[in-house]
Design a protein that fits this description.
heterodimer, A: 316 residues, mainly alpha, MetI-like fold, 14 helices, 0% strand, B: 332 residues, alpha/beta, Rossmann fold, 2 domains, eight-stranded mixed sheet, 23% strand, binds adenosine-5'-triphosphate, binds magnesium ion
């Protein structure tokens, strides 16, 4: 197992290198002069040239890259070009927590909903329960998250006034109850699509596992049905579903932008949208890099969990 | 042997009939199979691929999903009690305890994510109500019994860490852990190379004598049957076409199909039997079962009479049964 972890950790290095180069290039090759943008319309050519020199924008790309990468390694992501004096790191770190919490919460709901229901559908395949769950998951897959979000707001916030329609509470300063009151609607609308997908994957994987030889063998030993499901089938089903959980996190991070907008949550998505509006390249670059690194991290964790769950992986 | 020395009957299968629910309608893969297995007896179940050997064994164990996959009728008497219609929970108390099964492919039959220890201890804990430590000691003992070297260390392996022969031994250890009255071994050696194959067969033979259990050995290797079985049932297209004590069957095969099978073995006792024989034609599909004798379309001796009406099993005496209108006499 230790060898596996080590090998997997080593593969992170080239991935991170490539990610950083791509992020750097995307921002630097986008048309538009950041210096001109910063100084506004009535800047003279000389002003722009001076700023160019100060920011090092005339240096060869490779030099710029290494300077940028060196800064990033020291935790310096540069300064916002739209909000004077704001460091990008400060902006990201304040917006980071709501997004992460939203993603984690929505994925928890997804997993807790999809895994048991998927297993139930597989166990009772062909039954009324199964058909009802199929309809439910079709609905989930075909309904965009903002539609569901708006529906939930109209019903639970506007009509019944059970939950607040918008806003965000920091669980560490305002307490968890407040957090849950504000974040449940966004988390459900963000996680619902994926829970439908995960439920289908769980069902398919469970059906395959249930028809495998080792389940027949387990039955032929007299293992009670509950142990067949929980001990023999569940872990094998999980092997497929772990990947789906990873995808869920990543797509929740991507989908957060819309939901944050809808519910007024000051997260990374919100910051990203604002920054794109303002052509704030330094911030866009910082966010893109953070999200990319987060993806690398999630994939790493998924692989490590996979190694824990499947003894066959560790050998390879 | 059973014929001279009748022992108590472990398994009595009567008119077993298994019909699969398929997209193309019902398919009857096993049609009226009856046989008995006695204590200490090894019954060989032979026949070409697709004749219904595995379906027979799976039906006896009731391992098909009776709601979605197959309907089974007839009677399966395990030590006199019909287990075909008892509820699922009650069935789970019999499986692994009074009847156990070894499957062909040990790699896919052992759970890849559970340690061997976990998988052997399971029946011990369920049926013999052992505690963890006791079950572990017994599991180690069983692994030693089936010939796994240094079982104390091996027991914590995962299935993929063992060799094919060792996995098969582990499966045998699991099946025998609660000393079942009946063991069904469905081609337990087909996936193994010849030397390991012989070792596994010896092991089954030895344990059969030691534990005095009834064994159904499914194989399409007639040489194996000749070596280890006491009785043989030959299946063709879901029916038993001939059943006899092993010497009787090899000395006086009566059904043309059995004779064809015997002629297609290279050499049984070292001597060559001349040119290798092949049974003409192929096994018909299940939804094209011919009328009359099912073997008639491929039978060199078939007459018009064979193609009309069903052919019953008839007793030739001495427990030698054959489903043929003109059974052959004498050796090959
Ligand atoms: N689950 C199933 N659904 C439909 N048909 C099946 C099913 N299982 C087996 N059959 C059919 O039943 C027939 C008998 O199959 P079975 O597996 O018993 O053959 P076998 O004698 O064990 O052959 P082999 O020597 O290849 O193992 C085959 O025609 C097969 O296609
Ligand atoms: Mg078979």
């Amino acid at each position: 197992m230790r060898g596996y972890v080590l090998r997997r950790l080593l593969t992170v290095i080239p991935t991170v290198l490539i990610v950083s180069v791509v992020v750097f290039l995307i921002v630097h090759l986008t048309p538009g002069d950041p210096a001109a943008m910063m100084l506004g319309d009535d800047a003279t050519v000389e002003d722009i040239a001076r700023l160019h020199a100060r920011l090092g924008l005339d240096d060869p790309l490779i030099v710029q890259y290494f300077r940028w990468a060196g800064n990033v390694l020291r935790g310096d992501l540069g300064y916002s070009t739209a909000v004077t004096g704001q460091s990008v790191w400060d902006m990201i770190s304040t917006h980071f927590l709501p997004t992460i919490l939203l993603a984690v919460y929505s994925q928890l709901i997804t997993i807790l909903l999809a895994l048991p229901l998927g297993m139930l559908a597989a166990k009772r395949r062909g039954s009324l329960t199964d058909s009802a769950l199929s309809v439910f998951s079709m609905l989930g897959i075909s309904l965009p998250s903002f539609m569901l979000g708006m529906g939930l707001v109209l019903l639970l916030a506007v009509q019944f006034r059970l939950l607040p329609a918008t806003g965000y509470k920091n669980p560490f300063t305002d307490g968890w109850p407040a957090f849950f009151r504000y974040m449940s609607l966004p988390a459900v609308s963000l996680g619902f699509i994926h829970s439908a997908y995960m439920m289908r994957m769980t069902k398919a994987s469970m059906l395959e596992v249930l028809s495998s030889d080792y389940i027949k063998m387990a039955r032929s030993k007299g293992t009670p049905e509950r142990a067949i499901l929980m001990k023999h089938a569940f872990r094998n089903t999980l092997l497929t579903v772990i990947t789906v959980i990873g995808q869920g996190f990543i797509s929740a991070l991507a989908g957060a932008a819309v939901v944050e907008r809808l519910f007024g949550i000051p997260g990374m998505g919100m910051l990203m949208v604002d920054s794109i509006d303002k052509r704030d390249y330094q911030v866009i670059q910082g966010i893109t890099l953070m999200i990319a690194l987060l993806n690398v991290l999630i994939n790493l964790m998924i692989d490590l969990i996979y190694g824990l769950a499947d003894p066959r992986i560790r050998l390879k | 042997m059973s014929a001279q020395n009748p022992k108590s009957t472990v398994l009595d299968v009567r008119s077993l009939r298994t019909t699969f629910h398929t997209d193309r309608g019902p398919l009857t893969a096993v049609d009226g199979v009856s046989f008995q297995v006695h204590r200490g007896e090894i019954l060989g179940l032979v026949g070409e691929s697709g004749c219904g050997k595995s379906v027979t064994s799976m039906s006896i164990m009731r391992l098909y999903d009776e709601k979605y996959t197959a309907s089974i009728s007839g009677e399966v008497l395990l030590e006199g009690r019909n287990i075909l219609h008892i509820p699922y929970r009650q069935m789970q108390r019999e499986r692994g305890k009074s009847m156990a099964m070894i499957f062909q492919d040990a790699l896919s039959s052992l759970n890849p994510v559970l340690r061997i220890s976990e998988q052997i201890m399971e029946p011990l804990r369920i049926h013999r109500h052992m505690g963890r430590e006791e079950a572990r000691q017994e599991a180690i003992r069983m692994l030693g019994l089936v010939g796994i070297p240094s079982p104390q260390e091996r027991i914590d392996c995962y299935p993929h860490e063992l060799s094919g022969g060792q996995r098969q031994r582990v499966m045998i250890a699991i099946a025998l852990s609660c000393q079942p009255k009946l063991l069904i071994a469905d081609e337990p050696t087909t996936a193994l190379d010849v030397t390991i194959q012989a070792q596994i067969l010896d092991l089954i033979l030895e344990l059969n004598e030691k534990m005095d259990m009834g064994v159904i050995l499914i194989t399409h290797d007639l040489a194996v049957v000749a070596q280890v079985c006491h009785r043989v049932a030959v299946m063709y297209l879901g029916q038993i076409v001939e059943e006899a004590d092993v010497e009787d069957l090899f000395d006086h095969p009566s059904h043309p199909y059995t004779r064809g099978l015997l002629q297609s073995i290279p050499h049984l006792d070292g001597g060559h039997r001349g040119e290798l024989h092949q049974i003409e034609g192929t096994v018909p599909l299940l939804h094209q079962i011919p009328e009359g004798c099912r073997f008639a379309p491929r039978c060199p001796l078939a007459t018009d009479r064979c193609r009309q009406g069903t052919v019953p099993l008839q007793d030739l005496g001495g427990g030698h049964m054959v489903r043929c209108l003109c059974p052959q006499e004498g050796g090959l």
